[in-house]
Amino acid sequence: MTQTPTKQIGKRAVARLRAIRRQAAAWRRRTQRALTLALIVACGIDMPSRAFAQQVGQSAMAPAGGVVNRAVAGLQDLNTNGPGLFYYGINAADRGLGYNGSYMTFGGFVPYAEDDLGGAWSADLRSHLSGYGGFFSNVGIVRKQFIGGALSGIGVYWDYDGDANQYPVSGVCGTGQFGQFGHTYQQVGISGEFLTDFGNLRSNGYIPVGSTAYTAGNPSSPFFQNYVMHQIGLDAALAGVDLEVGAYIPGLTDWGGMISVGGYTFGNARYDYPGGKDVVPYFGGVYTRLDMTFIENWDFSLQYNNDSFFDSTGFAR
């Protein structure tokens, strides 16, 4: 029996690529209209102009029955125009992997081109504001393409971390001299993914650039300058990789339930203490995450991490 190309490709992967292509075409039409309007305005009044647009996603799929569904019934008309270019979220954590506190995210995934090989190119833009008032962001370019019945993707990112105030200073010994001891970091990130109807495979690489570590004191001595250090100062960006495998949960197909397990390794061998020890020797850890979509375009994630350096960490998003 001969199958058509559409039948050979997984239904979810087909839907993803169609959505990307529709958004790319719509974005090109918007851009052309915006340029035409800008030209007309510029010719007419000789003044620069800016325009901002917002588009949000599909209607809620949950019926308005039961306590939870009645609570979300008011959201049913919020996403009536299909998936939008922009999104927002909240990452709640007490101790995350390498950071403290929670943060909120405003991002955009903007399709803008399709190459001759069938690859769809998009801009992945994310801005974050932490509970401590710090700002950090990710700016990336992503390419996605079908390979057989799966959807593959690769992305390159520039990451900026200015969230330098994650620790209390009031009444804490030493903060008068050294303050928060937080610093700004930047890094290059490389991401790859392989998505199928059964599960996903993802990996990320992190390459800090510029100054990547600051220290005050030495683990082998309690003395630093004119101080006796009860705890040495260390603030460092970590290089490393992570890898995860995810599988859809049969009993949670109505909510797109997926369980993922993975591992990571991080460290900073670029800088050493006076005795020759790396400021952060490379360490490894494992994690697991549950992803679900209770309402269309409203996602929920719960992740737990464990390693020898940070111990137990996690987040709810």
Tell me the helix content. 10-25%
Please trace the helix and strand order, writing H or E for each element.
Answer: HHHEEEEEEEHEEEEEEEEEEE
CATH top level assignment:
Mainly Beta
Principal-axes shape call: elongated
Largest sheet: 12 strands, antiparallel
Second CATH tier, the architecture: Beta Barrel
**Average pLDDT score:** 77
The CATH homologous superfamily is termed Inverse autotransporter, beta-domain
Supply the number of helical segments: 4
Strand order of the largest sheet: 1-4-5-6-7-8-9-14-15-16-17-18
- First CA to last CA: what distance? 45 Å
The number of distinct structural domains comes to 1
Total strand segments: 18
Poorly predicted regions are 1-10, 31-76
Radius of gyration: 24 Å
Structural overview:
Helices cover 16% and strands 48% of the residues. The chain is α+β, with helices and mostly antiparallel strands and 317 residues long. The chain has a single domain, classed as Porin (Beta Barrel). The strands form four sheets. Strands 1-4-5-6-7-8-9-14-15-16-17-18 form a twelve-stranded antiparallel sheet. The protein has a two-stranded antiparallel sheet with strand order 2-3. The radius of gyration is 24 Å and the shape is elongated. The two termini are 45 Å apart. Mean pLDDT is 77; it is low at 1-10 and 31-76.
